[in-house]
Amino acid sequence: MTKKICVVKGDDASPEVVVPTVQIIEGMGLDIEFLWSVTGDEAVTRYGENCPRVAKEIIDEADCAIFGSTRTLGGVHGYLRWGKKCYANIRPTRYVSGMITPLKDPTGIDFVIVRENLEGLYPGWEGDIGQLTSLNLRNERINQALDTSAEGKFAVKITTEEATKDICRVACQLALKRKANGGLGKVTVSSKYNVLIQSDEMFRRIAEETVGEYPGLTFHQFIIDNFAQQLVLNPKQFDVVVMSNEHGDILADGAAALVGGLGIVPNSCIGKDYAYFGSVHGTAPDIVGRDIINPTAMLLAGGLMLEYLGFGEAACRLETAVYRVYREGKCLTHDQGGTSSTTRFCQAVKANL
Asked: What is the CATH number of the domain that holds 43?
């Protein structure tokens, strides 16, 4: 059966990596149909809103989406993330020879951060402190009542047992898959469980309990401060790391610097019946139209998408073609110390296929 992929081109320079990625996949001879949605500035001009009903209908019709970065967390991004309940954000960090990194020896760095994608602080449950007055909140640990007379804002962090169990299962299943291919079979959880002794400690506890349900996996834990240090001191110790929303977002971005930056690393956002794939960098408005944005992250995200759709061999071919460009070192983009354009890099990948 033909697989349908919705294309969300994204804003600013995003289409410059999304469009050639789609074109390369179209040339691979797979039973795939791309459905082009109208979102962002084009949608605002035509329909008066960022993510009109017609775009949502195309998203709903597809099996998954390839997603170019957008300027806002709402609109089409919000619909894909929260509307389609894509709860698991998978952020691989892998070094391949030829990538420019700040490390003396990045050889062997190959781990994945699995981030809970729907809860935590990021849904934006915020408001004026005065709205909390009727709750009469008191913190017994510091023996103080919340002063709601102060001018300021609050933000609510949500951590539920169900969502935590779901994301920990994803981490364990990924660790088993990686172990079958030579991985460490190791799941690490990191949170601020020494200070947030209810929410983050619950996350840590559920992770430990879940890993215990998977024979062959080992469990490790780090307070988030120490994890940040270990990420710099010894990143090769990690295999699969599971984190809450904001912790995973921040530390996965930091991890990207180990292997060459945000232009290198892809990500997938997986739900129980939908997924979307893309880069983790922003829209790069400062270089729009210059044909210099690094397409690596989007191309590797295309490989993750093909694997999700069941085209495992094609996914491997695409990933291998991208990494061969780095190993050859002749067509690297400016951020990787080269002089090649986005177009030339993509042509090199296509030639390697």
From this structure: 3.40.718.10
pLDDT of residue 71: 87
Are 91 and 163 in the same domain?
Answer: no
- Per residue in 158-181, pLDDT (tens digit) is 999 999 999 999 999 999 999 999
Q: What is the pLDDT of residue 28?
A: 96
340 and 273 fall within a common domain: yes
| Verdict on whether the full-model pTM lies above 0.90 | yes
Residue owning tokens 């300021």:
152
8 Å CB contact between 197 and 242 = no
Q: Give the closest residue to 224 by CA, choosing from 259, 257, 249, 260.
A: 249
**CA–CA dist 264, 43 (Å, integer):** 29
Distance (Å, whole) CA 333 – CA 325: 11
Work out whether strand 126-128 and strand 153-155 pair parallel, antiparallel, or are unpaired: antiparallel
Domain presence at residue 78: yes
Range of the domain at 271: 1-99+262-353
Mean pLDDT over 96-124 rounds to 96
* Mean pLDDT of all residues in 51-76: 93
Could you give the CA distance from residue 93 to residue 7 in angstroms, rounded to a whole number? 24
Contacts 24+ apart (CB under 8 A), 148-157: 152/128, 153/126, 153/127, 153/128, 153/129, 154/126, 154/127, 154/128, 154/129, 155/121, 155/124, 155/125, 155/126, 156/121, 156/125, 156/126, 157/119, 157/120, 157/121, 157/199
Of 318, 310, 327, nearest to 351 (Cα)? 318
